[in-house]
Amino acid sequence: MKLVECVPNFSEGRDAAVIDAITDTIRACEGVELLDVDPGADTNRTVVTMLGAPEAVSEAAFQVIAKAAELIDMAKHKGAHGRMGATDVCPFVPVRDISMEECADLARALGKRVGEELGIPVYLYEEAASRPERQNLANVRKGEYEGLAEKIKDPEWKPDFGPAEFVARSGATSIGAREFLIAYNFNLNTRDRRIAQDIALEIREAGRAKRDEKGEIIRDENGKAIKKPGLFKKVKAVGWVMEDFNCAQISMNLTNYKETPLAEVFDAVCRLAVERGVRCTGSELVGLLPKNCLLAAGRHYLRKAGKSAGTPEKELLRIAIQSLGLSELYPFEVDKKIVEYRISDPRPLVGMTVGDFVDETSSESPAPGGGSVAALAGALSGALSSMVAWLTVGKKGYENAFEAMKELAEKAQALKDNFLRAIDDDTAAFNGMMNAMRMPKKTDEQKAAREEAMQQATREAIAVPMRVLTACPEAINLAESATAGNENSLSDAAVAASCAVTAAEGAYYNILINLAGVSDDAYKKQTQDKAEALLDEVKKRASALGQSVTQRLKDAI
Fold this sequence. Notes:
The protein is an alpha+beta fold. It contains 16 helices and 13 strands. The strands form 3 sheets. Strands 1, 2, 3, 4, 5, 6 and 7 form a 7-stranded mixed β-sheet that branches. Strands 11-12-8-13 form a 4-stranded antiparallel β-sheet. A two-stranded antiparallel sheet has the order 9-10. The protein starts with a strand and ends with a helix. The relative contact order is 0.07.
């Protein structure tokens, strides 16, 4: 399921009734979770965070921009924070199964709609920017609301959408796409703010002013201080003292955790703290962060310890939380701090116990059915290959295989998770077909709409098992690699191959039964040919693996 976050900022932080009316607009939107509302009286600004499927979040964003334009009069607005509109900024942030370019497309589509339907001037920024000079929000907002009337007359600053004229009540809105911003603090065993600030200057991208041997700031011919860049890009940091926690902290904003991983910054802070005679005792997350950020940290610390990073998600999260000291100041609650866990579970089948899943499959309900069971078989194949890898690493006599087995475990975990996602995706696709079948068909228009929906739903019902089938050769690859692991687990590698065959055959049958409902003959032939070739490959390779393992097991008797 695609998930996108949206973080609109509104130019109202004091009037609770207005803030409630704005946020109630989001609460009324189906498929969107309101995660956080953060008003500030001094800034006279409220930052709202919402999460959901792209289409639902885009609709909620439009509705809330409309509500803000209705309730906020920018001509009367005063506040400490820079701003130029009732809805000042509205960025889309990719969270799961969605690219940055897709988020940029959402921003463009929303900007066009806001400009045309609400008559609000819209500027695109960051990853959605229409030109390089508009990527930086500071450039777009320069002059703020008070300078907008003149700025908008400049052809270089014509809005991307909406009227190229000053709209006094609403001002202008910046709509864009950006990476997740993580607010993160490092705790030191000192109350000395100077030490925290010194480390902050060392790690942040902006760095610090260069100094000569006498300690004087080195300046260029224009008198501007020459900077020494910091250790990390996409990092902003400052040192301060938190009286509530009785310690100095390095407060950091990480604006691109993919480019600058959180664990690497944490390790650098720990090293720099020791060099200054203090220790980093832990860290604190302010707000939310995406799951992948912590998963990457978990893998980082496993690899540093010489272990395989091929371990289940829960264990990776546990290792990350412990290694980063995220529970030092208060318990770190994954269900509240990880953004993906804040939305209703879209995968109810995967969350079931084995007994409940089997019982549900055995009931009169047509889903879960063979497609979900085939995906489960694929997940078991990946799980068994990972298990063999773990039972090999660290065992005497297999030293030459350690690195290959560590890599195998990581690949197997990723494949396992891919199959697990397909368990619920297959059932969701089946339910989509049922919903299309229930559409009205009294008029010609209704019949045509129903037929179009049926064709689209059927293709989705084919796409999921095709995804399962396409992954099965990789499951065989991993099972083959696992046969070079611990001899005591040789039978487990063979069972991994058998599960891959079951997954492939189950997916193949589901593809065939759904192809009967497709009207496009060329698509049907292409899909069937591809499915048959994949199944044939999996069965042949699994058969060869089975014969080899059988002989090795017999020889050992």
